[in-house]
Write a structure and sequence with these properties.
The chain is an alpha/beta fold and 252 residues long. The protein has one domain: NAD(P)-binding Rossmann-like Domain (Rossmann fold), CATH 3.40.50.720. Helix 2 links the parallel strand 2 and strand 3. Helix 1 packs across helix 8 and helix 4 packs parallel to helix 5. It binds nicotinamide-adenine-dinucleotide. The site of nicotinamide-adenine-dinucleotide (NAD) has 31 residues, from helix 1 and helix 4. Nicotinamide-adenine-dinucleotide binds next to helix 1 and helix 4.
Length: 252
């Protein structure tokens, strides 16, 4: 059942650290050439250089996924360099925290722009390439916060992630006749820089652990292995789903 992505090209957004980094490394380890996108150029280059140093193939493309022109340039450069894009992982995300009454319009719009519009822009640009190829797999990283469990003081984040789940279903239906599967992965609490501040609070940690049946927080690799499975032929009949990777925190 080991997934083999030899000869395939995977574009992972927000792959300069955290979950995206783990997904990029996992695809490279399974033989794919990886396009490492991140708005932080230094972080993207660090991950791409690490993959190349380990014998893999990677290209760092530091662009803002919320910028339509930048996304177009990124996809064009990726295709010029690597000839195809078989897999897109829309992972880039931000999670600003503030009570609703103190949330600025800018914070609201930027969160939706990166998390939701970025997913749309990359799916549209890469979708055009995949239509030509007649095949592809897209994974959108949503969150349990977009599906079942609201996160306090993060209205824009929750709205953006719920939007991603709805977008995933529509996109899956539209792209299926073109050989393209589209799924969402909804992580629970994962040990990344995004959750570092909350993890340093023992009260929050205790509450989280009480709510997670498997008794631990998730690791970026837990999310990466689900992403690889969903992109593989082993999941060839799975599309339009939103799958929780959360240690059982949410049960359907
Ligand atoms: N960590 C968790 O517990 C958790 C839980 C559920 C969902 N998620 C989701 O998983 C994804 C990754 O989360 P993480 O914990 O690794 O976050 P992280 O903050 O550690 O990493 C996110 C990466 O995205 C990049 N990024 C931000 N804005 C960007 C933009 N406009 N264009 C390109 N890159 C951009 C950042 O520079 C960063 O490297 C996010 O979509 C997040 O919402 C995380």
């Amino acid at each position: 059942m080991r997934e083999d992505f030899g000869g395939q090209v995977a574009l992972v957004t927000g792959a300069g650290r955290g979950i995206g980094e783990a997904i990029a490394i996992a695809f490279a380890g399974a033989g794919a050439a990886v396009i490492v996108n991140d708005i932080n150029g230094r972080a993207a280059r660090r991950v791409a250089e690490g993959i190349v140093a380990g014998g893999g193939q990677a290209l760092a493309l530091p662009f803002d996924v919320a910028n339509e022109t930048a996304v177009g340039a990124m996809v064009q450069m990726a295709v010029e360099e690597l000839g195809q894009i078989d897999i897109l992982v829309n992972n880039a995300g931000i999670e600003p925290k503030s009570p609703l009454l103190e949330t600025s319009l800018y914070a609201w719009e930027r969160t939706l722009a990166v998390n939701l519009t970025g997913t749309f822009l990359c799916s549209r640009a890469v979708g055009r390439v995949m239509y030509e190829q007649g095949r592809g797999a897209i994974i959108n990283i949503a969150s349990i916060a977009g599906h079942r469990i609201p996160l306090p003081d993060r209205a824009a984040y929750c709205a953006s992630k719920a939007g991603i789940v709805g977008f995933t279903r529509e996109c899956a239906r539209e792209f299926a006749p073109h050989g393209i599967r589209v799924n969402a992965v909804c992580p629970g609490v994962i040990e990344t820089p995004m959750t570092a501040e909350a993890r340093s609070d023992p009260k929050i940690m205790r509450k989280w652990l009480d709510d997670i049946p498997v008794g631990r927080l998730g690791r970026p690799e837990d999310v990466a292995s689900m992403v690889l499975f969903l992109c593989s032929g082993n999941a060839g009949y799975v599309t339009g789903q939103a799958i929780h990777v959360d240690g059982g925190k949410v049960m359907a």
